[in-house]
């Protein structure tokens, strides 16, 4: 079953007449339960594409764009769908900067993930039931941070905070997780833990994961499929094993990021059958 579908998504930020689009007619479909890496050089449109999926960014109005997630329309013709709140409840968006409330406990931060399901008043007052607290502790257990529940979020390392953000998405009962450069500011060990956590929830819970990554070797190690963008167009879309050295060089040119992971699998050189880079 299709979890995510984009058709004809074009996005131009500038209103100047000759401004170039950041995304150019993107058509993409992702199956439920897949784990997909969005790769490509800086500025190629990865984050912008991801933000279209949760309706944080709207496509151009005149391009006939449509974005659906889990069968619900998120945006159509550059307009947000009316019942976006319900759709967003199923989508966990994780950011490079974690977006936790540093002065609150780790547990409270995770509990906030369930806010879309409880009354605004109860949420504002910070009243949570024993059942909700148990669920939040279970989510923390899943990401290996249960013993940090009562610490302030700001006391945790970057990698730990990122895992709290993942626990918050679990508490939210998200069926799709969109992770925007979740390891960009982390050291290799923390990066591995975060990617392992994402892969674990993908495999065990069947949650669809789309993750933007700068380091191709992490994509190769943890993701099943790669979608590569260059200048706002999809230039590669296939099983991650199909992506070879030559294609990576073509994709990044002289901007190719360093490969950080010492455990990266050796890459097999396969045919260039799908790469459309000119
Ligand atoms: N809100 C915005 N207003 C204007 N331009 C924007 C906005 N957001 C992104 N852009 C521009 O769109 C282009 C694509 O940005 P985006 O962040 O999607 O790329 P990216 O591939 O995620 O890059 P990086 O890997 O460096 O994060 C860039 O040129 C960026 O400057």
Describe the secondary structure blueprint for this structure.
Layout: E1 2-11, E2 23-31, E3 35-39, H1 46-53, E4 66-69, E5 72-76, E6 79-80, H2 84-88, E7 91-94, H3 106-112, H4 120-125, H5 130-142, H6 158-171, E8 176-180, H7 188-205, E9 208-212, H8 216-222, E10 225-230, E11 233-239, H9 245-252
Parallel strand pairs: 3-9, 3-10, 7-8, 8-9
Antiparallel strand pairs: 1-2, 1-4, 4-5, 5-6, 10-11
Helix pairs in contact: 3-5, 3-6, 5-6, 6-7
The structure holds adenosine-5'-triphosphate.
Protein name: ABC transporter domain-containing protein
Pfam family, one: ABC_tran
Main location: membrane
Low-confidence stretches: 256-278
Say how many strands there are.
11
Structural class: alpha/beta
In the CATH classification, which architecture of the largest domain applies? 3-Layer(aba) Sandwich
Give, in order, the helices and strands.
EEEHEEEHEHHHHEHEHEEH
Pfam families: ABC_tran
Keywords: ATP-binding, Cell membrane, Membrane, Nucleotide-binding, Translocase, Transport
Subcellular location: Cell inner membrane
Membrane topology: Peripheral membrane protein
């Amino acid at each position: 079953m299709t979890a995510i579908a984009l058709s004809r998504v074009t996005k131009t930020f500038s209103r100047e007449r000759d401004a170039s689009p950041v995304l150019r007619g993107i058509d993409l479909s992702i199956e439920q339960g897949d784990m997909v890496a969005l790769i490509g050089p800086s500025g190629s449109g990865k984050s912008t594409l991801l933000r279209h999926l949760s309706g944080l960014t709207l496509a151009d109005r005149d391009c006939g764009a449509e974005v659906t997630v889990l069968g619900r329309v998120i945006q159509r013709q550059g307009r947000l769908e009316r019942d976006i709140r319900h759709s967003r409840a199923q989508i966990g968006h994780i950011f490079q900067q974690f977006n936790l409330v540093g002065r609150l406990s780790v547990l409270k931060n995770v509990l906030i993930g369930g806010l879309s399901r409880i009354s605004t008043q109860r949420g504002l007052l910070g009243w949570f039931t024993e059942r909700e607290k148990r669920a939040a502790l279970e989510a923390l257990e899943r990401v290996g941070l249960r013993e940090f529940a009562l610490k302030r979020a700001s006391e945790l390392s970057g990698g730990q905070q990122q895992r709290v953000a993942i626990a918050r998405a679990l508490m939210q009962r998200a069926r799709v997780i969109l992770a925007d450069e979740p390891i960009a500011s982390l050291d290799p060990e923390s990066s591995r833990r975060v990617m392992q956590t994402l892969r674990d929830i993908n495999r065990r819970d069947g949650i669809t994961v789309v993750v933007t990554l700068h380091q191709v070797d992490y994509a190769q190690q943890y993701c099943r499929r790669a979608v590569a963008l260059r200048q706002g167009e999809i230039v590669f879309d296939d099983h991650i094993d199909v992506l070879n050295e030559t294609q990576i060089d073509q994709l990044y040119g002289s901007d190719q990021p360093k490969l950080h992971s010492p455990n990266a699998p050796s890459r097999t050189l396969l045919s260039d059958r799908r790469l459309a880079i000119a």
